[in-house]
Every structure is written in C-alpha cells, then in structure tokens.
Amino acid sequence: MSSSNDGIQFPLHGDTQKISTSETGKAIIAEALSIVDHQISQQTLNEKNWRKQYPRYFKALVAQGIRDNNSPITIAKQGLHKAQHSFEFYRDGQRYLLKDLMQIPAIEKLNTYAFQGESQAEPEWYIPYHGQKLQGQSLLDQIDLWLKKGIIEPSHAEALRAVNAHPEWFDLSNRTMVLFGAASEAGPLTWLSKWKANIVAVDLPNPKVWEKILTTVKNGNATLYAPCTEAIAENASIEQLKDKLGANLLTQTPEIAHWLANNPHKLDLAAIAYLDGEKHVRVSMAMDSIMQFVSEQKPDTSLMYMCTPTDVYAVPEEVIQASTEKFRSRNALHKNIAKGISALTLQKFFKHNSQHLISSENGQSYGIADCLVVEQGPNYALAKRIQQWRATLARHQGQTVSINIAPSTTTHSVTKNPLLKAAFNGASLFDVEAFKPETTNAIMAALWIHDLQNPKSVAHPETQLDHPLELMMSGANHGGLWRVAYLARTALPFAAIYGFASDKLPIDKMFRKNG
C-alpha cells in the first residue's frame, strides 16, 4: 500500500532530519558552479536568504557558461550529477538514491492500451489569435509584426515561416511522440491529435485528466497509447477507460521508464509536466531520470523541452543593443515618471536593464537577459534549470534536442497568482505580450515539428553552433521580455499595478513614445 512518502522526494538534511528545498537547491547550484567559479560556489552555499537572492546565482551560471564552450557542459554535468545523488525515492519503506532508481526490485510491468481517433481529416495548422485563424499570408504578416515589435527573435520567425511553407511536415504518422504531462494546458496534445501522430500519453490516473485526453484524441486522426496496470478489453468506452488509464511520474518512475524503453519505435520525449511549488522540481527530476534511462537504452531518442521566458539566458549582442536603445529612446514624460517612481521606491522600480557584454573564447560577445521573477521562487527556477542542463548535455552527446522559449501564457497555473495575472494584464505597457494558451499551443507545437522535420534546425547535433548556449537562444518567443528597457522584475510590480486598474488609468498612452 502506497503512502504520501512514496516516490521521489527531497532529501532529509543533517541533524534536523527535515526536508529543506532551499538547502537542496543551494547545494545543486553550488555544485554546478564549483569547477567554473569556486568563489561564487561557496557564496551560494553560504547564502542566508536564498528565496530572495537566488537570481544572483542563477545569473552566475549563465555568466560563467558564456566564457567558453566547455563551461556549459561542465555546469550541466556537475548540476545533474549532484541532483541525481541528492533526491531520494521511497517504496515499501525502503529509501533509494535517485541515481539507483532503475535498479530497484519488483518493478511492475505496465500494459499499453491503444485508442484510435475517429477523424479522417488531413493534417492542418494555423494559429488562433484574437479570434482569427492565422494561415498563409495573414500568418506571415503577423510574424513580421511580432518580429518588428521585438516579441519574437528572428530565428523564431524563420521557423514559423518554414513550417508554413512545408505543410507536409505535419503528417506525423511515422513518429511516436511521448508527452509527460499529456493534459498540460500549454502542451501540444490538441495539435498532435490533428496530425496523425502516434501519441504516448503519460499523466496521472485521474478520470478528469483522461476524459480530456481521450476526448481530444477521439476528435482527431491520431492514435493514443496509454499506460495501465491491468488488461482492458478492446473497444472500451471513454467512460470505462478514464478510470483505468494513467501512471504517476513521481511514484511509478521506474515503471514508466522501462515501459518506454521496451517500446519498439523511435521515440520523441517531451518534458511538459508541471506541478506547483516543490513538486515541480520533483516531477522535473522524474522526467529527467526517465529521459536519461530511455536515451541510454534507445540512443535514437529525441528530447523536447519548453522554456519559460521568466528565466535568465545568454542572448546575442544585438538583443542587448536593442534593450539599451529602447531605454535611450523613451520620451521625456516616460523618463520623468520612471525616474520619479524609481526614486520614491528606493530604486526598486524601473531599474535600468544595464548589461555588460561577456566575451567568449569563440570570438563573439553575448549578453544576459535576466527575466527571473522572484515571486515564482527558486524551486521553479531550479526545475527549469535542470531541464536546460539535460538539453545542453544531451545535444553535446549527440542527441536531437528541441528546446524553445515559449511566451508568457495566461494558463490557469499562472493566472491563479494574482500578481502575475495583473502583471500580464499590464504587460503591454512595456511592449511585452502575454499569449492565450491556444495561441501558445499552436506556436510551440509547430516549433517542435520544425525542429524534428527541418534537418537544418539547431535541434540536430549535426547543425553547428558557435556556442552550446545558442541552443536556447535559437527560436525564442519571449514575448518581448528580452528587449524591455528595464530589469524585468523591477517593472513587473508597476505592470501589475497598471493591470489591476488598466481600464481607469491613462498611463499606457503617457508611457508610449509619441509617434
């Protein structure tokens, strides 16, 4: 019989024998930095206010990673090694280190249930946007507009244009695509279900979750393969199936890994599961353990991740120049209001996004886009960093890896935070765009297909990169966050204030540069 302690857990610390997510996070980041910068590594371990100061150390990871091509690989190896040796897995009262997870005894075999969609429609792609279905020329025009406004990067625009020009790429009948967290609001399930994909869906054994997944697939032309612990009769109804399908990433981690490793097809694994708080770190570790194991057993496996724009990234020099120019070109009223509010708040609002370029051994200079939002917390940042590390290391080792920055999206998990919801409502004040889930879904599903189907995409290790961190730079749709004039988290509170009362305040017009 399982208990709440079963599955992947943060480790117990020291004499207290209590869980401390902060101590674990500090230890992992410190270990990641230990070889590239011993001093900042020690400072990380000694940090007393981790929940407020963590952005400094995540920025250090990027700064040190920029300096040469080996550093991002070293950082990823060290960080992942420490994480695998820190987290624990409990089953039947026994404790195991996560690194030993796949060798635990009595791993149960999962069954597979196949479910066929009923549609005969051919694959189609468009972007739902403000009540429109963007296709063809209207889509190309919108891509140009997003690019002009700095919402997306040129490489993202190129990818969208490429998939628009190659509708044949959307026939996925020859691909087997694994979705960890298949029902995720920001995930690609709806689109894969329209593209004849073979979808391996991994999500919690929850009737509501599986009713959503099954109904989505039924209305499309794809084939679903779902895990289950018992044999199920063919042609079972959705009403019967929704209570029998599913597997828990946190507690059935080795079962899922072995089940996938035994799949006879080449797999495309997508790490899109999300949980709140410290559970997000644990589910990221679960996905990472499974993806590592399956990749070892099936070396032709590809990996997919979606990054958050509210993180810290190395960026091309041109992005920093654009941000600096935006700061310089503010109109007089904008400057005076920002200066006054900054003074009143003791520099907490409207801090200049000043950046020093960092020279790399490859002869190029890169900047840092620090868009971390303190309110999201260090656990969220750690969960996403673990994914970046695995992506960086896997591609270095020869795997195909699709990892793209998705725009800020008004999903339920985001908008239930009142501050973030209000900030998104006021984001346009700073030329930042937050997308609705259906728009993000269409865009990011297409980016994944582009990365898999276009042999020239940076996802393929045969495509030469000047620096490993360019893997995350390419294809970015940050919604404008990279190019704002201010340090993002110092503009966020004012954006939130504006968002709370956006229909009453004329600040939007005052802040925009006169045309």
TrEMBL record:
Q: Report the domain of life of the source organism.
A: Bacteria
Name of this chain's protein: Uncharacterized protein
